[in-house]
């Protein structure tokens, strides 16, 4: 049985979204128990009104709620009894295998990092998300907004944890292709940080395929795409905006005149398929990757369908035991990196001696 802790009060709409989203999720997955955290009276009332299967739900009281515009550090310091904090505590205490919240992103990241800590060797957690692609599986992208300034070493850390998560969820795919998001594919392009990251990744034992441009992200050119949070977030928001623009433009064209409306009827099956494939709600649920616990961030403005997909993401990660696999894989990758550094240092020392002679 998988147990998920849910911040029932988080997000723009709170219980109006989290309760129906949780119930839809429970209908899909039978081996799950939910801990709904929030104002107990309000949560129970919402669950009762929705005829929730209470034998599969535990309600845990929280006296506080973190506001969507609240400063992360203030929320961490002053809201110790918030629904967000208590949900994350369930993961630390082992009561739940994962926590899900649609609340304040900054507060969620700060709280999760404080409560759960990071995996040894990882300086900062990153926001990671699976994006649609035209290949047979999804593409993992990170960081998508948690760290706007990163060192080359931290970007390599993101590549390592992304590599390990992908292998944990898709073991049959083998070693994932790692791409570094850049303004060009040539290794001489990009900022000094990106160039240094390129060199480090190239010397690692990861399956690094080089730089990748943003126009190749949705074409499955890489399995894991690495960027700092500034660049990654801009890429993500641009993709989301482009999808919304295309959907609106197609709708307008088919409504332009009678002929186009008739054509829309004939194209309806294809249009439904396209809408389903690009539905952003299906990709809701970003992973706070690098923590010693599974925490999933749902979009604050999502609806109940989107929230149920965030719960699905948490469920699949918990069921695959991704965290233990990631921790083991990270340790092995860092050991390999240290061995490579030692070998390079020895070679440089030998070259220096030969130069003296």
From TrEMBL:
Q: Which reaction does it catalyse?
A: a fatty acyl-[ACP] + phosphate = an acyl phosphate + holo-[ACP]
Any one GO MF term held by the record is:
phosphate:acyl-[acyl carrier protein] acyltransferase activity
- Where, per UniProt, does this protein localize? Cytoplasm
Is Aminoacyl-tRNA synthetase tagged as a keyword? no
Which GO cellular component terms, listed alphabetically, does the Swiss-Prot or TrEMBL entry include? cytoplasm
Keyword Lipid metabolism listed: yes
Q: Name one Pfam family in it.
A: FA_synthesis
Q: What is its main location?
A: cytoplasm
Q: Which keywords does the record carry?
A: Cytoplasm, Lipid biosynthesis, Lipid metabolism, Phospholipid biosynthesis, Phospholipid metabolism, Transferase
The UniProt entry's GO biological process terms, in alphabetical order, are: fatty acid biosynthetic process; phospholipid biosynthetic process
* Pathway recorded for this protein: Lipid metabolism; phospholipid metabolism
Q: What EC number(s) would the UniProt record show?
A: 2.3.1.274
Extract the InterPro entries matched here: FA_synthesis, Phospholipid_synth_PlsX-like
The similarity annotation says: Belongs to the PlsX family.
Enumerate the PANTHER family for this protein: FATTY ACID/PHOSPHOLIPID SYNTHESIS PROTEIN PLSX (PTHR30100), PHOSPHATE ACYLTRANSFERASE (PTHR30100:SF1)
What is said about its interaction partners and assembly?
Homodimer. Probably interacts with PlsY.
Q: Give the protein's function.
A: Catalyzes the reversible formation of acyl-phosphate (acyl-PO(4)) from acyl-[acyl-carrier-protein] (acyl-ACP). This enzyme utilizes acyl-ACP as fatty acyl donor, but not acyl-CoA.
Q: What is this protein called?
A: Phosphate acyltransferase
Q: Which gene encodes it?
A: plsX
